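User: My instructor asked us to take a sequence, write out its structure as tokens, and then describe one feature of it. I'm not sure where to start. Here is the sequence I was given:
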Amino acid sequence: MPDATPRLSHQQLMLMQTMAGPFLKTGQWPVWHYVLTELDRKGLDAEELLKSLPYVGSRGVGRLSYGLAWYEHNGLSEDARPALTMAAGLHLAELEDVFGWLLRVVNYLVKRQASAPASPDAVQRNYVEADEVAREFPVMTTEFLQAVPGMLRYEPLLMRGAQGWYDKPNGEQSWRYELHRYLLRLGGVTTLREYVDSQLEYVKQTNLEYGLNPRNTPGQLVHEGEGVWSHSVVQEEAAAEAELPPMVTPVAARKLYVNAGLRDELATKQGKTKLSVDKLLQLLHELDDNYADGHAYSCHALLRAVIDHVPPILGHKSFEAAVNNYTWSRTDKKYMTRLLDFKTQADDVLHRQIRPSADVITMHDLPQAAALNALLRVCIDQM
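Assistant: Let's start with the prediction itself. The structure tokens for your sequence are:
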């Protein structure tokens, strides 16, 4: 297996940081003129450094390669926009979060391909729309979502499905991704390193099948012999240490399911009531964490746990009894009825056994946060 993280020189890292900075701010890779100008000021040759970045495979028309950067190998115009690949996330800490979230999108595409319908009579095309991705990952920023198709097109196993932007019937612009069988090669991949290794292995196998071996030049992952892969990296004296560009996360400011003020108020009740609230606080904290990360099953389980935990505060042994017998306001009673109905859905998440068809529970199936916050408000007032 090729090494996914060959040691880079300070100059190579400086080039990558110069490219990554504008992308983290805007979601768009900078034009090559900007990179040339910035590195010229530091006395560095941007084009030489770009060509020195490690890669595996064979570069040329109709050939496959994968490395830390994607660019036109026959010559870069000043208005070109060379890009860093997900493999660069193994070298630049500021890209880890961005490509970590992109890997979640990839995992979702793999999941959808695994359950995609097929017809015995005709080729059936299946797509994932941008709106679907937004629903699956509600904490994802609009800017990051817009950058997704551009990032996928530089990844060998993913580029064939990238469809780009189109106009929806309502006039809005959106993008879609066509599902394909090569996605399944990424099944079970959970870390960025595993992902990069899968891409490298695919490139290696494809080139060997066609009898193509990478050229042995500095700065590349090279094929040294039968079944042996290693890397050769340009060694240069370090220039001035590169400053890290400001990091822009791919998700919006952390979204909470539980009202922060209510949780803080609940914490002040600890030690001032006969009932301990430490477990309730921990459940709420974990619920917020999993909500921010988009973990639908965990959120369902934790919300169900909260609902089952609080009835003694209201003087009842079960939530059903509390909903039916506690004196609620008219609005709160509607909220509590929704939470009671939710228990059936939570039971489905917790107890439905494995089956041939894919599950359909998503983050959007959670009840409105207002219902839980209304329950907490009443519980706090009762303490």
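For the description part of your assignment, you could build on this observation: The chain has 13 helices and nine strands. Try explaining in your own words what that tells you about the chain.
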